[in-house]
Protein 1
Amino acid sequence: MMRSLFSAVSGLKTHQTRMDVIGNNIANVNTEAFKASSVRFSELMYQTMSTASGGDASTGTGGVNAKQVGLGVSTASTMINITGAGSSETTGYPFDLKLSDSQTTNFFIVSDGTNTMFTRAGSFYVDGNGYLCMSSTGYTVQGWQVDKTTGEIHKDTVSPLQVMSPSNTTSAPEATTEAYVHGILDKEDTDVTGKDGYVMTLGFYDDLGYSYTAKFAVSTPKTTQGLGTGNNYFISLTDIIDSKGNSIVTKDENGNAIKDKAGKRKMLDSIWGDDGKQDDTNGPKGYYMKYDSNKGTFVSIGDGSNTTAGTKAVTAKSLKLSALGTQYTTNNADGTTQKSNFKDINVDFSTSTNVGHGGKSTLKVEKGTSVGKETGKKNGAMIGLAVDQSGKIYASYDNGNTELLGQIAVAQFANASGLEKIGDNCYQTTLNSGEFDGVGVAVDADGSKINSGQLEMSNVDLSGQFTDMIITQRGFQANSRVITVSDTLLEELINLKR
């Protein structure tokens, strides 16, 4: 039989393989994170009719090349365009994640519970057990956990990321430990000069997250003896009420019910402390505040001479609302005594001023520092999850807290094209891809990032695929014609017998 028949048949087979690959590429033109493949051909083998000979200088005869006839073509390889990024589709869903590579090709690490696999498809969801999983297969996404001691990511062997669990659906409350007074105290304000004084309220939390309101009164002092020059005022604590509007100062430090205002006043004075003086003989205890009479700036509060437990440490710019836990106790039904859960609150007066404001004061006391720290928080319920560009997963809570839950790790390979496709948008390692070390790397280690709310789409180039389809079709057609012509030649040979 003619060699051209077998060569043409091999051509048909290889072009059919190429057509199969093109068909698969086009079929997956809208498959998430699909990577297009291409086929490479190589010569099959050669039949040598005669070997090459060298030239003979003595006779003047030149060398003769070898006489060889090729026997067809074979599929050399199928190459995956693994490094070619697909276009981005914006979904807005926080757990649709797109890997944006900088220097190396990154892969999400997923597991079916037994085998570790790798994928570029970042469509994830949170399952019924709180684990982050692939939406198509349910494979769990692998990453690093948070060290409970330090609160930082512990980069160790990857494990399933449980982003919702009974331990993180709520955020622990925090007690208020700082407060600051700001605004204007106008000496011509009738509230300041009146009987009850100018009222300020401070909302704060105890360490169980319960909210309370402390009421203060600022007034002009009934006596200025020993206060020195400057604009002087007197501030006292008038009540502490709970979230239902009930005063909590109803028992003394021994747990006995307070039956009269004098007893309640004594309790408030022990919480607030004082300068060792009263504004009048029977009035509430408190502190004298001083402002510069020329500039209106705050000078000091308290004379700093009293260092009793109630006063704690009095400074020039601030003082402490003493922790009720050291002053206020409750008798339980079983006869035990329970201290309350309040913490010392340092109140800073330095940002307040004493200037004219049309007879109206704007003085206010706010919880926390002037930059919003140490405000205290109620017990928080989870209201959202988010993934940042480094793969760290954060939970946000309705008390303003944000907590780190884990970090998505990625895998990198020496030869990413050597990975083997196993379906479901997943790959597995081969001897030619390099092994996975079980730990992975941070996606931002080389400047890469994870984009939340986006998906990577297929990198199939339709125009290129249709061009390859035409070339493949013509190649198949030409090989078919070789078979037809070879058959005609054989027919002529058979006809010689006639």
Note: Residues 101 and 448 are 5 Å apart (CA to CA).
Protein 2
Amino acid sequence: MEINDLTPAERRVWRAFVTGATVDFRDGDADGDWGPERSVRAKVLRALLLNGPAEPGEVPALKLLGARITGELDLRYATVEQVIRLNYCRFDRTPRLAGAQLQYLNLRDSVLPGLAAARARIDGSLRLTRCRIAGPVRLGGTQIAGALFLDHAEVTGDDSGLPALALNQLSVDDDLCAAGLKARGMIRLDGARIAGSVDLQDADLSHPGANAVQAETLEVGANLLARRLRATGRIDLRGARVPGRIDLLDCALSNHGGTALRASSCVIGELWLRRGEPIDGMLNLRATEIGQLNLAPEKLPDQVRLLDLTYTFLTPHAPVESRLPMLDRDDTFNPHAYEQLTASYRRTGDDTSARLVQLAKQRRHRRTLPWYGRLWGHVQDTTVGYGFRPLRAGIWLLSLLAVGTLTFTLHHPAPLKPAESPHFSPVFYTLDLLLPIISFGQEGAFAPTGVYQTLSYVLIVTGWILATTVVTGVTRTVSRQ
């Protein structure tokens, strides 16, 4: 392409390219008139980047501000060694950069109908800060040696069914900065690898009834920061690896009637889920390993899935009465979840709360048993609280001992062999009836009749029940220790 074939605006760009100078077409207002005086054909930019002029001792670069790019900028599979900076620009058509090898690409504050850069390679950073993109952004399989900036960008998907932001298999050697991002449509991060952190603080994501974020097997080198995130639709992090923290403080997650947050089969250093309104939709943490679970009870939704969830620490320390509903909201009885909560209280030295969790576990298990199992469970619960309230057995024994002693004091049973019978003692006779193993020689020497015989049978049966439940509780306690 010859310089004589260019418009006055394009000649300015051509001459500035040699030295890497910036051409600013703005006249005090980046959203003003987009007439010919600030229009540059995409094919001119392509010619500059692939075969532009050069001068010894100068570093060429394409730096444009406030230009209208007409036509299609097609750099597919091209190798571009110059820096590309197109800020405050308006693109008539979607730039095609699939498979390209670029040094650095900066489209900050620009307006685009989309961006197609799948499987590209960028040796520096890709900056889309404050861009307004009215179509899909395709970066699947792209390798970025620097950072990816999507902070305060607005991305709106089209009706094609494609993700608004296709970042699947993306590789970023630094951070993914998307604070304040506004996305309408799915953000797809399946298989992406971010060496640094992912920043979604103050982001506003919406894809009602579907996945707002689909990030299965996402790998993050540091943290996933999402304070004050607003998401309508499901966030799917299944199989993600985040060795730092997932920070969801003050977030608003909503997917009414479905799953709001799915973080199953993940490995997470810390999960912070506190402050703000309760989650609207199911929380799924099945088979996830978490170092520190920083979870406020009031943040939990009506439905949770906690099967095989493991965590080392649970903070903040909250009364057991506020933690137990979390376990009860799982439709399936999950003994492991109760053991995890028990261990958490024991680590803080709160053995009383740990015992109450174990008692709640037995009561929840009772609901899964047949009628006779539930009946026996009620007996154990009423008498000694499944062994976690042993003082109850003492109260029962003392009460029955008092009843028996008073009754048999007023009415001595007749001796079987008067000449050989020991002296009758109402206290030890009642103890003989209540205690199934210990014998004081009273029970076999006297024979009550009528209603007193019935009372003796009641004391014998009750004694066996109390003894069995106490032994069961002690055995359970010893086995736990």
Note: The chain has a mean pLDDT of 88.
Protein 3
Amino acid sequence: MNPAREHFEGFGGHHMAIGITVKEANLPVLADQLEKAAEQAQLDFRQRPQLNLDATVAISELSTDLVTKIKQLGPFGMDNPVPKLAITNVRVTDVKAIGQNQAHLKFTANQAGQQLAAIAFQRGEIADKLSHLSNTIDLAGTLGINEWRGNVTLQLMTEDLKINGLQVVDQRTTNLAKNLFRDEQQYIFFNPKLLSLIEKQNLGRQLYLYDSPAIQAHQAVVLVDCPPSLKLLRQALQKWQPTQITTYFFHQTDYYASGMPSRTEFATVFAAVKRQPLTKAALLQLGKQLKIDQEKVNFMVKVFFELNFVKMEQGKLLINDEVQTHQLSEAPIYQKRLDLIQTQEKLLYSNGDQLATMLTQLLNVENEGVS
């Protein structure tokens, strides 16, 4: 700042700090000199400063007595910093942004049945992400005591945190609300019809079908809808090599909950068609008549078509007299539903830990038989 000191009202300090008083009119001069000084020093803001840690501890080892013993190492200052501790492989709960403008982060660290309150100043912006995170994290900071209304509790003043492994943010939903697209992300779809529907809303976001060449590898991705198979998901993940995966896994039909129609249900629908030809309108009422879910009825009719069991003549569905014997499982749509059932069971009904493990395996496992 020395080359511009004549523009300042007050100027002083020492090799570790500087104090400046400047008129508002001269703020551009201050900003310009800061830029010049940064260029001359060849500062690289992409390089993060290294945090030196004194010890790795478990939450079970921490106590107010330890805080007292640490204080005996003081007084602390530039040449005698407060000991910094690392706590590895913890899970976070009770995550919230606090303070003015929700600027600060507060959470509870959990490890082997033990808990520790933690706070991170100026990190409130990651509260939402952290609250949905499936991974364990490592923490670094200083240990202190929080006194509130007569209660004395341990608290970690968190200076940094590291997410372990592939970052998986679990936000699975059955409601694809607009606020899910508020961030600048790569939003990836497996269903082209759903992609077209969202595109019409003009959200101003990067929306891609899963096989789009525009998807940038080694970046974060948001999986908007549930893929039709784990094999397809694995192939996509290995192509993208994402650094972070956010899962919405939106789905309109829960095939796992609905299941595969039973052989009895297939026989019942087939018998209904055999009794008399059915119009399209009659087909739409067949589920109610037979007390079978209409979605299943529609599916079974498609299976019959693929196996050439039925045909349409003059707008009516009837049995094909030249039908040949086939196993129901020979129909491509039957196999597709099986894949959907198995995929939804794993992707929609797993807990957060299981989901993170599964996606990590899909990303790293090469063999075609992964399931």
Note: Residues 367-371 have pLDDT under 50 and may be disordered.
Protein 4
Amino acid sequence: MTTTTRTGAVAACVAASLALAGCADSGTGSAGSSQLDIATMTFPQSLDPAQAVGSSLPFFQAAYDTLLKREPDGRLSPMLATSWKYNADRTRLSLTLRKGVKFADGTAFDGAAVKANMERFKKGGGADAKWLKDLESVEAADATHVTLDLQQPNPAMLFYLSDAAGLMANPKKFDQADSLKTTPDGTGPYRLDKTKTTIGTKWVYRRNADYWGRRLPYENITVSFFDNETAIVNGLKTGQVNAALLQTADQQVSIESDPRMKTVKQEFDFQGLLLFDRDGKLTPALKDPRVRQALNLAVDRETMLGAIRQNRGQITSQVFGPDTQGYDKSLDRYYSHDPAKAKALLRQAGYAKGFTLKLPRISAIVNDALAASLATDFKAIGVELVWDDLDGASAVRKVFTDRAYSGMVMNMGQSSSDWVVVDELVTPGAFNMFGTSDATVRELVPRVRTGTAEQAQQSVRALNEHLVKQGWFVPFYRMTYLHVSDGTVKISPQSGMAVPSIYNYSPAK
């Protein structure tokens, strides 16, 4: 991954984490089946699919279809591609495309459009461009048949085609500077209504009368940006918005007391300390797995979850989420709070007097309570935690470009794809910036990538267990988010995404 792509990907992750700071009322909406108004805490800087990232996918789904559709439970179903098939070694993926589909200006969707979009996405420098790093070439045999040639098997490729990498825009717009940035041209169920849209405040989509597929239940969808969750809650209670995702515990408690509201819980992000310096380049102590295990044993996850999240979540010692095959419920509580054992491990590792660990802090991610809790837990075993206060922009540069810190506390989305987790956190890249590996990782990662379904499942579970026992990371807990509607909307959470797909809203019965 290039530095540019790495920094872009991390900037997106930091931006998603910053959403926990909350979000202010900037738009209005009306209830009823003809109109759906969704409140959001983040928004894309561009509506060009080449710059799309998963955290802002609903903005794109309204105007653009993906090649595959990801159902709420994570299953993949046909969309612009009606069928797909791999060759024996899974390095060639053949897609059969839907006939009779047109872009907004009437141009036909075909194999050439798929080729142009995928090549552009890979080279476009977007935060998720790395997803197509294994894509060697795209061959469009004719209007309805496309073949993707891969440098090596990529178990997440179909997942990517249901996400940002699978969004299809009109290639005729590619040469028109900044056209797609504010004027989407896709095959999707809605068209952006520019007369009612105010970029940065609200985006209004009206139904595409010529859509090839099943109509969604709403004539219009409005996505309104808010900069704090208190305003979102007020908007829900006064009917300004119909649906929202609440992340902070206080606001979840506030909305649950209103009998008019309908709520659905979802565990998605985990909060924890991502250790980068497992080779001890910056903090030599972290090279010893006993030290990393000691840090895990030092954290009082139960108390932290209660004090910071009002017990809205589940403590965990693993980075794999419940929707993955690598997840092992027994590993959630692998590390109990045991300062005495942690001190013993530090003595065995030669750090009886402890050491100093300096970490960056973005206050919107690490609030005062969390900062104090972690510092207290580490101090109890002799580790001095020094926080370096940064803003979001400087954090991206100092952490991921300058590599100035040994780790960072972050909120990380838990993909439903095992390979996405492995590729993001284990293979060399943004979150394994020093390229740490060992014999077990080198043995298991290729099996996850190239093995049969059974071999891959066994290997990813073994890999997860190894990462936990070696203390590669220090997760705290998975956070419970709350999907809320004003009572007029039914919301289905989306596997692998914090926010629902636009297909996951329907009028409440």
Note: Confidence is low (pLDDT under 50) at residues 1-9, 18-32.
